[in-house]
Fold this protein.
Amino acid sequence: MSKGVIQANYVWLNGKLVEWENAKVHVLAQGIHYGIGVFEGIRGYYDNDCIKIFRLEDHMKRFLKSAKIIHLEIPYTLDALINAVIEVVKANNFKTDIYIRPVAFRGPGSIGVRAKNPVEVAVIAFEFGKYLKPTGVKCKISSWRKPPADSLPVYAKIAAMYLLYHLAAVEANNCGFDEAILLDSEGYVAEGSGENIFIVKDGVLITPPTYGAILEGITRDTIMKIATEILGMKVVERRIKREELYTADEAFFTGTAAEITPIVEVDNRIIGDGQIGKVTSQLMELYQKIVRGKIEKYGRWITEVK
Ligand code: PMP
Protein backbone atom coordinates (compact mmCIF):
# COMPACT_ATOMS: atom_id res chain seq x y z
CA MET A 1 0.00 0.00 0.00
CA SER A 2 2.94 2.30 0.37
CA LYS A 3 3.68 2.63 -3.34
CA GLY A 4 1.59 4.09 -6.14
CA VAL A 5 -1.52 6.18 -6.17
CA ILE A 6 -4.69 4.33 -5.36
CA GLN A 7 -7.90 5.13 -7.17
CA ALA A 8 -11.25 3.63 -8.06
CA ASN A 9 -14.54 5.01 -9.36
CA TYR A 10 -16.76 5.01 -6.28
CA VAL A 11 -16.49 5.16 -2.51
CA TRP A 12 -19.26 4.34 -0.06
CA LEU A 13 -19.45 7.33 2.29
CA ASN A 14 -21.98 7.81 5.09
CA GLY A 15 -24.69 5.71 3.51
CA LYS A 16 -24.28 6.38 -0.18
CA LEU A 17 -21.98 5.88 -3.14
CA VAL A 18 -20.03 8.97 -4.11
CA GLU A 19 -17.49 9.51 -6.85
CA TRP A 20 -13.88 8.98 -5.78
CA GLU A 21 -13.03 12.71 -6.04
CA ASN A 22 -15.96 13.64 -3.80
CA ALA A 23 -15.13 11.26 -0.92
CA LYS A 24 -13.87 14.06 1.34
CA VAL A 25 -13.32 14.68 5.05
CA HIS A 26 -13.24 18.03 6.87
CA VAL A 27 -9.85 19.04 8.30
CA LEU A 28 -11.41 19.54 11.74
CA ALA A 29 -12.24 15.82 11.93
CA GLN A 30 -11.26 14.51 15.37
CA GLY A 31 -10.13 11.29 13.73
CA ILE A 32 -7.30 13.16 12.01
CA HIS A 33 -6.17 15.07 15.10
CA TYR A 34 -6.28 12.28 17.68
CA GLY A 35 -6.49 9.06 15.67
CA ILE A 36 -9.99 8.36 17.02
CA GLY A 37 -11.06 5.80 14.50
CA VAL A 38 -11.20 2.12 13.61
CA PHE A 39 -10.76 0.30 10.34
CA GLU A 40 -10.59 -3.04 8.61
CA GLY A 41 -8.60 -4.54 5.78
CA ILE A 42 -10.32 -7.14 3.64
CA ARG A 43 -9.30 -8.82 0.41
CA GLY A 44 -11.40 -9.72 -2.58
CA TYR A 45 -10.06 -12.14 -5.19
CA TYR A 46 -11.07 -11.93 -8.84
CA ASP A 47 -11.95 -15.42 -9.96
CA ASN A 48 -14.45 -16.88 -12.43
CA ASP A 49 -15.80 -13.48 -13.42
CA CYS A 50 -16.64 -12.42 -9.88
CA ILE A 51 -14.99 -10.95 -6.79
CA LYS A 52 -14.72 -13.42 -3.93
CA ILE A 53 -14.52 -11.52 -0.64
CA PHE A 54 -12.74 -13.47 2.07
CA ARG A 55 -14.30 -13.69 5.56
CA LEU A 56 -16.33 -10.52 5.09
CA GLU A 57 -18.65 -11.12 8.05
CA ASP A 58 -15.73 -11.83 10.41
CA HIS A 59 -14.02 -8.61 9.38
CA MET A 60 -17.15 -6.52 9.86
CA LYS A 61 -17.80 -8.10 13.24
CA ARG A 62 -14.28 -7.13 14.31
CA PHE A 63 -14.93 -3.61 12.96
CA LEU A 64 -17.96 -3.26 15.23
CA LYS A 65 -16.08 -4.70 18.21
CA SER A 66 -13.15 -2.31 17.69
CA ALA A 67 -15.63 0.59 17.53
CA LYS A 68 -17.39 -0.50 20.72
CA ILE A 69 -14.10 -0.67 22.60
CA ILE A 70 -13.28 2.98 21.79
CA HIS A 71 -16.85 4.33 22.29
CA LEU A 72 -17.39 4.92 18.58
CA GLU A 73 -21.11 4.66 17.85
CA ILE A 74 -21.37 3.27 14.31
CA PRO A 75 -24.81 4.19 13.00
CA TYR A 76 -25.13 1.02 10.89
CA THR A 77 -25.94 -2.62 11.66
CA LEU A 78 -23.65 -5.51 10.77
CA ASP A 79 -25.90 -6.35 7.81
CA ALA A 80 -25.90 -2.76 6.57
CA LEU A 81 -22.08 -2.65 6.72
CA ILE A 82 -21.78 -5.95 4.85
CA ASN A 83 -24.16 -4.59 2.22
CA ALA A 84 -22.12 -1.38 1.97
CA VAL A 85 -19.04 -3.43 1.12
CA ILE A 86 -20.91 -5.45 -1.49
CA GLU A 87 -22.43 -2.28 -2.97
CA VAL A 88 -19.09 -0.49 -3.42
CA VAL A 89 -17.39 -3.59 -4.84
CA LYS A 90 -20.23 -4.02 -7.34
CA ALA A 91 -20.26 -0.36 -8.34
CA ASN A 92 -16.55 -0.37 -9.19
CA ASN A 93 -16.85 -3.41 -11.48
CA PHE A 94 -13.32 -4.64 -10.67
CA LYS A 95 -11.55 -7.18 -12.88
CA THR A 96 -8.56 -7.80 -10.60
CA ASP A 97 -7.86 -8.77 -6.99
CA ILE A 98 -8.87 -5.97 -4.63
CA TYR A 99 -8.42 -4.62 -1.13
CA ILE A 100 -11.34 -3.22 0.84
CA ARG A 101 -10.88 -0.64 3.58
CA PRO A 102 -13.88 0.09 5.83
CA VAL A 103 -13.07 3.01 8.13
CA ALA A 104 -14.99 4.88 10.85
CA PHE A 105 -13.81 7.97 12.67
CA ARG A 106 -15.03 11.02 14.54
CA GLY A 107 -15.65 13.89 12.18
CA PRO A 108 -15.75 17.66 12.72
CA GLY A 109 -17.72 19.42 15.48
CA SER A 110 -15.99 20.31 18.72
CA ILE A 111 -12.32 20.28 19.62
CA GLY A 112 -10.58 18.40 22.44
CA VAL A 113 -10.24 14.79 23.52
CA ARG A 114 -13.48 14.87 25.53
CA ALA A 115 -15.68 15.72 22.56
CA LYS A 116 -17.66 12.93 20.93
CA ASN A 117 -18.14 14.34 17.45
CA PRO A 118 -20.44 12.60 14.97
CA VAL A 119 -19.03 9.38 13.51
CA GLU A 120 -18.39 9.11 9.79
CA VAL A 121 -18.14 5.77 8.01
CA ALA A 122 -16.61 4.95 4.64
CA VAL A 123 -15.83 1.85 2.62
CA ILE A 124 -13.06 2.23 0.06
CA ALA A 125 -12.23 -0.55 -2.41
CA PHE A 126 -9.43 -0.60 -4.95
CA GLU A 127 -7.26 -2.84 -7.12
CA PHE A 128 -4.50 -4.46 -5.15
CA GLY A 129 -1.63 -6.89 -5.66
CA LYS A 130 0.99 -8.24 -3.27
CA TYR A 131 1.81 -6.31 -0.10
CA LEU A 132 5.05 -7.98 1.02
CA LYS A 133 7.48 -10.05 -1.08
CA PRO A 134 5.97 -13.55 -1.41
CA THR A 135 9.49 -14.89 -1.92
CA GLY A 136 10.39 -14.01 1.66
CA VAL A 137 11.20 -10.98 3.79
CA LYS A 138 14.14 -9.86 5.88
CA CYS A 139 13.06 -8.51 9.23
CA LYS A 140 14.35 -6.34 12.03
CA ILE A 141 13.26 -6.52 15.64
CA SER A 142 11.91 -3.04 16.19
CA SER A 143 13.12 -0.65 18.83
CA TRP A 144 9.42 0.27 19.18
CA ARG A 145 7.48 -2.11 21.47
CA LYS A 146 3.83 -3.09 21.63
CA PRO A 147 2.25 -1.28 24.58
CA PRO A 148 1.00 -3.36 27.51
CA ALA A 149 -2.71 -4.26 27.54
CA ASP A 150 -3.54 -1.43 29.96
CA SER A 151 -2.01 1.24 27.75
CA LEU A 152 -3.89 1.01 24.45
CA PRO A 153 -6.53 -1.59 23.55
CA VAL A 154 -4.38 -4.01 21.55
CA TYR A 155 -7.37 -6.19 20.67
CA ALA A 156 -9.01 -3.39 18.69
CA LYS A 157 -7.97 -2.41 15.19
CA ILE A 158 -7.74 1.28 16.06
CA ALA A 159 -6.26 4.04 13.94
CA ALA A 160 -4.10 5.47 16.76
CA MET A 161 -2.19 2.20 17.12
CA TYR A 162 -0.94 2.45 13.55
CA LEU A 163 1.44 5.30 14.31
CA LEU A 164 3.43 2.69 16.23
CA TYR A 165 3.43 0.36 13.22
CA HIS A 166 4.39 3.23 10.92
CA LEU A 167 7.40 4.03 13.13
CA ALA A 168 8.43 0.38 13.26
CA ALA A 169 8.05 -0.22 9.51
CA VAL A 170 9.86 2.98 8.54
CA GLU A 171 12.67 2.19 10.98
CA ALA A 172 13.06 -1.30 9.49
CA ASN A 173 13.05 0.05 5.92
CA ASN A 174 15.55 2.78 6.81
CA CYS A 175 17.88 0.09 8.13
CA GLY A 176 17.57 -1.90 4.89
CA PHE A 177 15.03 -4.51 6.09
CA ASP A 178 11.67 -5.36 4.52
CA GLU A 179 9.57 -5.50 7.67
CA ALA A 180 9.61 -4.94 11.43
CA ILE A 181 8.82 -7.41 14.19
CA LEU A 182 7.57 -5.83 17.40
CA LEU A 183 8.19 -7.32 20.83
CA ASP A 184 5.68 -6.93 23.66
CA SER A 185 6.44 -4.86 26.74
CA GLU A 186 8.09 -7.89 28.38
CA GLY A 187 10.34 -8.62 25.42
CA TYR A 188 8.49 -11.54 23.85
CA VAL A 189 7.71 -11.68 20.13
CA ALA A 190 4.35 -10.04 19.38
CA GLU A 191 3.70 -9.39 15.68
CA GLY A 192 4.73 -7.55 12.53
CA SER A 193 3.66 -4.00 11.62
CA GLY A 194 0.52 -5.40 9.97
CA GLU A 195 0.81 -9.16 10.41
CA ASN A 196 0.70 -11.93 12.98
CA ILE A 197 3.68 -14.22 13.24
CA PHE A 198 4.18 -17.99 13.32
CA ILE A 199 7.25 -20.17 13.73
CA VAL A 200 7.72 -23.86 12.94
CA LYS A 201 9.84 -25.88 15.36
CA ASP A 202 10.22 -29.66 15.10
CA GLY A 203 7.03 -29.91 13.04
CA VAL A 204 4.94 -27.88 15.51
CA LEU A 205 3.35 -24.56 14.56
CA ILE A 206 3.78 -21.94 17.30
CA THR A 207 2.22 -18.47 17.48
CA PRO A 208 1.87 -15.84 20.25
CA PRO A 209 -1.39 -16.23 22.23
CA THR A 210 -4.44 -14.00 21.91
CA TYR A 211 -4.01 -12.86 25.51
CA GLY A 212 -0.68 -11.38 24.40
CA ALA A 213 -0.13 -8.01 22.76
CA ILE A 214 -1.45 -8.99 19.34
CA LEU A 215 -4.34 -8.27 17.06
CA GLU A 216 -6.49 -11.40 16.77
CA GLY A 217 -5.85 -11.83 13.09
CA ILE A 218 -8.43 -13.43 10.85
CA THR A 219 -5.67 -14.89 8.67
CA ARG A 220 -4.03 -16.22 11.85
CA ASP A 221 -7.28 -18.02 12.65
CA THR A 222 -7.55 -19.33 9.08
CA ILE A 223 -4.00 -20.72 9.20
CA MET A 224 -4.49 -22.34 12.59
CA LYS A 225 -7.60 -24.09 11.26
CA ILE A 226 -6.09 -25.32 8.00
CA ALA A 227 -2.84 -26.43 9.66
CA THR A 228 -4.75 -28.67 12.07
CA GLU A 229 -7.65 -29.71 9.83
CA ILE A 230 -5.78 -30.28 6.56
CA LEU A 231 -2.12 -30.78 7.46
CA GLY A 232 -2.86 -32.50 10.79
CA MET A 233 -0.27 -30.33 12.55
CA LYS A 234 -0.08 -29.51 16.20
CA VAL A 235 -0.62 -25.79 16.74
CA VAL A 236 0.48 -24.20 20.01
CA GLU A 237 -0.35 -20.69 21.20
CA ARG A 238 2.35 -19.52 23.60
CA ARG A 239 4.88 -16.77 24.14
CA ILE A 240 7.87 -16.87 21.80
CA LYS A 241 11.30 -15.73 22.86
CA ARG A 242 13.35 -13.68 20.44
CA GLU A 243 16.02 -16.42 20.46
CA GLU A 244 13.43 -19.00 19.41
CA LEU A 245 12.57 -16.87 16.43
CA TYR A 246 16.24 -16.64 15.40
CA THR A 247 16.60 -20.42 15.62
CA ALA A 248 13.22 -21.50 14.22
CA ASP A 249 13.06 -24.07 11.41
CA GLU A 250 10.65 -21.79 9.55
CA ALA A 251 8.88 -18.50 10.23
CA PHE A 252 6.13 -16.61 8.42
CA PHE A 253 3.71 -13.72 8.71
CA THR A 254 -0.04 -13.93 8.27
CA GLY A 255 -2.33 -11.04 7.41
CA THR A 256 -5.05 -10.04 5.01
CA ALA A 257 -2.66 -7.86 3.00
CA ALA A 258 0.47 -10.00 3.59
CA GLU A 259 -1.44 -13.29 3.14
CA ILE A 260 1.27 -15.84 4.07
CA THR A 261 4.68 -14.20 3.76
CA PRO A 262 7.79 -16.27 4.49
CA ILE A 263 10.34 -14.73 6.86
CA VAL A 264 13.81 -15.68 5.63
CA GLU A 265 15.97 -13.54 7.90
CA VAL A 266 15.66 -11.81 11.29
CA ASP A 267 18.31 -9.39 12.56
CA ASN A 268 20.83 -10.86 10.09
CA ARG A 269 20.20 -14.45 11.24
CA ILE A 270 19.08 -16.71 8.41
CA ILE A 271 15.92 -18.65 9.27
CA GLY A 272 16.18 -22.35 8.39
CA ASP A 273 18.08 -22.57 5.13
CA GLY A 274 17.02 -19.08 4.05
CA GLN A 275 14.46 -20.45 1.58
CA ILE A 276 10.69 -20.77 1.86
CA GLY A 277 10.13 -23.64 4.32
CA LYS A 278 8.14 -26.79 3.54
CA VAL A 279 5.25 -26.08 5.93
CA THR A 280 5.18 -22.42 4.88
CA SER A 281 4.93 -23.31 1.20
CA GLN A 282 2.18 -25.88 1.85
CA LEU A 283 0.19 -23.29 3.80
CA MET A 284 0.76 -20.63 1.12
CA GLU A 285 -0.63 -22.94 -1.53
CA LEU A 286 -3.63 -24.01 0.53
CA TYR A 287 -4.40 -20.43 1.48
CA GLN A 288 -4.51 -19.30 -2.16
CA LYS A 289 -6.92 -22.14 -2.96
CA ILE A 290 -9.16 -21.37 0.00
CA VAL A 291 -9.47 -17.62 -0.65
CA ARG A 292 -10.49 -18.36 -4.23
CA GLY A 293 -13.14 -20.83 -3.06
CA LYS A 294 -11.37 -23.91 -4.42
CA ILE A 295 -11.74 -25.96 -1.22
CA GLU A 296 -15.41 -26.67 -0.62
CA LYS A 297 -15.09 -27.19 3.12
CA TYR A 298 -14.19 -23.53 3.57
CA GLY A 299 -16.70 -22.15 1.07
CA ARG A 300 -18.59 -20.51 3.95
CA TRP A 301 -15.80 -17.93 4.20
CA ILE A 302 -16.45 -16.55 0.70
CA THR A 303 -18.92 -13.88 -0.36
CA GLU A 304 -19.28 -13.73 -4.14
CA VAL A 305 -19.99 -10.37 -5.77
CA LYS A 306 -20.94 -10.46 -9.43
N1 PMP B 1 -1.55 -7.48 13.30
C1 PMP B 1 -1.68 -6.21 12.88
C2 PMP B 1 -1.04 -5.13 13.67
C3 PMP B 1 -2.41 -5.92 11.71
O1 PMP B 1 -2.54 -4.65 11.28
C4 PMP B 1 -2.97 -6.98 10.97
C5 PMP B 1 -3.73 -6.67 9.70
N2 PMP B 1 -5.09 -6.50 9.94
C6 PMP B 1 -2.81 -8.28 11.44
C7 PMP B 1 -2.10 -8.50 12.62
C8 PMP B 1 -3.40 -9.45 10.71
O2 PMP B 1 -4.80 -9.45 10.85
P1 PMP B 1 -5.73 -10.07 9.72
O3 PMP B 1 -5.22 -11.43 9.46
O4 PMP B 1 -7.08 -10.08 10.35
O5 PMP B 1 -5.64 -9.19 8.53
Summary: The chain has a mean pLDDT of 97. The longest strand covers residues 98-106. The CA atoms of residues 85 and 208 lie 31 Å apart. The chain is about 25% helix and 30% strand.
